Amino acid sequence: MMYLDSHRDILEWGSEEIIIPYRSPLDGRIHRYFPDFYVKRKNLKGQVSCLLIEVKPAGQVKRPVLQETVSKKYVRTVATYVVNQAKWKAAESYCKDRNWEFKIMTEKELGIK
């Protein structure tokens, strides 16, 4: 967040301020998704663009490997994955409608080991 506050090309930003409705594949109901960050930035040509960023552990971004033994942990992992996919699909649509960009960042992109 200090980066966002101090970077000269960041015009404004917010954390969990945007609400995007999505349908959960688990219960079929509409829920609310709050992406982690909204960023309004200026590029080298002076053009302004907006970006929604979701920060997740890399393990939640990868499709779970099919397992023969179904444990409670595996069921939770699959449920988290499918709900995240529904959220991200809704976020991509939301951004496309506004000519924004949606980006998922993990510890790899953030340089965290």
Describe the structure.
This protein is an alpha+beta fold and about 110 residues long. The chain has one domain. The chain is built from 4 helices and 6 strands, in the order αβββββααβα. The strands form 2 sheets. A 4-stranded mixed sheet has the order 1-4-5-6. Strands 2-3 form a two-stranded antiparallel ribbon. It is globular. The chain starts with a helix and ends with a helix.
The low-pLDDT segments are none
Indicate the overall shape.
globular
Number of domains: 1
Based on CA atoms alone, the radius of gyration comes out at 16 Å
Level of helix content? 25-40%
Number of E strands: 6
How would you briefly describe this protein structure?
The chain has 113 residues and is α+β, with helices and mostly antiparallel strands. The protein has one domain (2-110).
Keywords:
113 residues, alpha+beta, globular, 29% strand
